[in-house]
């Protein structure tokens, strides 16, 4: 289920930008998880999980 903010983001994104948006969201996720030395709190972990869910929804729409 998408949050209202995620739905709004998708409304701004052009369908043809889908692959680029997916790659950008994956890059953001990976940089925060694998290249940050700052520990994540529960709110940040939840936000990153939402980012992952968002790119999965976009990928599903593309197919």
How far apart are the termini? 18 Å
Count of helical segments?
Answer: 3
Gyration radius, to the nearest Å? 12 Å
How many structural units, i.e. domains?
Answer: 1
Number of strands: 0
Mean pLDDT: 85
What structural class should be given to the helix and strand makeup? mainly alpha
Uncertain runs: none
User: What amount of the residues lies in strands?
Assistant: under 5%
Helix content: over 70%
General form = globular
The largest sheet is: none
In short:
By secondary structure, this protein is an all-alpha fold. The chain is built from 3 helices and no strands. The protein has one domain.
General description of the model:
The protein is mainly α and 63 residues long. The protein has one domain (4-62). Helices cover 75% and strands 0% of the residues. The chain has 3 helices and no strands. The protein has helices spanning 4-12, 18-34, 42-62. α2 packs antiparallel against α3. The radius of gyration is 12 Å and the shape is globular. The two termini are 18 Å apart. The mean pLDDT is 85.
Feature tags:
3 helices, 63 residues, mainly alpha, single chain
Task: Reconstruct the topology from this structure.
Elements: H1 4-12, H2 18-34, H3 42-62
Helix pairs in contact: 2-3
């Amino acid at each position: 289920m998408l949050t209202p903010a995620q739905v709004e983001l998708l409304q701004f994104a052009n369908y043809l930008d889908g692959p680029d948006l997916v790659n950008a969201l994956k890059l953001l996720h990976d940089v925060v998880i694998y290249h940050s030395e700052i520990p994540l709190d529960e709110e940040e972990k939840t936000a990153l999980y939402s980012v992952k869910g968002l790119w999965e929804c976009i990928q599903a729409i593309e197919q």
